[in-house]
Specification:
By secondary structure, this protein is an alpha+beta fold. It is built from eleven helices and seven strands. It has a seven-stranded mixed sheet with strand order 2-1-3-7-6-5-4, with helices on both faces. Strand 1 and strand 2 form a beta hairpin. The chain starts with 35 loop residues before the first strand and ends with a helix. 28% of the residues are buried. The N terminus is likely disordered.
Length: 372
Amino acid sequence: MATLRRWPRRSEEPAPERDMDPRSDDEAPARPGDSVVDAGVYVGGVRHGSAADLAATYRTLRETPGGMAWIGLYRPSERQLQSVAEEFGLHELAVEDAIVAHQRPKLERYGATLFVVLRAARYLDDIEEVDFGELHVFVGADFVVTVRHSESPDLGEVRRRLEANPDLLARGPEAVLYAITDAVVDGYAPVVAGLQNDIDEIETEVFRREPQVSRRIYELSREVIEFQRATRPLATILRALSAGFDKYGIDDELRSYLRDVADHATTVGERVDGFRQNLQDILTVNATLVSQAQNEEMKNLTEASYAQNEEVKRISAWAAILFAPTLIGTIYGMNFDHMPELHWALGYPFAVALMALVCVVLYTIFKRRDWL
């Protein structure tokens, strides 16, 4: 990339500064440069003055032989980005992607310009969520343009680190691209640690049978899947970058730095894949434990119902046994003048014997059927 010729500019006149808000001119804010986070021109790894706006940056770059422009934009308007595109000859498809945002991580080459989309991430411990940011990077022979649509990553820290290391910054736009990629990948480490901590907590909650653990597993699984979408394409991007570095003769040290970033990205990808598998296993274990708990509950209910049925059978059996003598006693207790056996001398013993016989027969029947 360092050997490629710079794209021809459409105009050698200083480009006008563009407003930052995509509204009409009447509605645009009074401070049109708000989205220009920083813009500077570097020669030999050292910053060459400080530009007040994009037009001044363009002019300084034209007047500085061997210079490199590094422009950082935060949520620029379409007019703002078109100004940069016209100055550096950026492809319209890449500019459209940067304006629309919500792109997947990717690397594309348009002539002499690289267009890289990265997804930064940071872990929000208080709400246990992963906040994702989107970063677009245009890299040419003598310029780097970054377009952010979120608070992360903090490219100000990347710029300060590179400015403190002029030897690395002097290696050109490729060094800036390496530093930005390295910062994005390094930012994944706290996210990995936060997700690991959440998974450990979930494992404890599962075996404690916490009632809300299923919801937490589901929500964390969504975070892990989104994180996987952000990190998985990195391997392809870094391989393509490495191939480009080899093709265009980028120095060995910078290629070694890029390989180190690739190693870190591979480690992160493996950890994220492991997290997803762990959550699937935890969900299976939780479903098994819930099923076991339900089975235990059903067993207890069945046993209680069985015991209740046994009590009902005993009560019913005794009620039937007591009903027979009650019926006989009730019949013989009716006050009618003409009743069989009413004046019979053996009537009373006969009635008592009949009651006892019926009770014994019923008791024997119920006993044989295990009702008593």
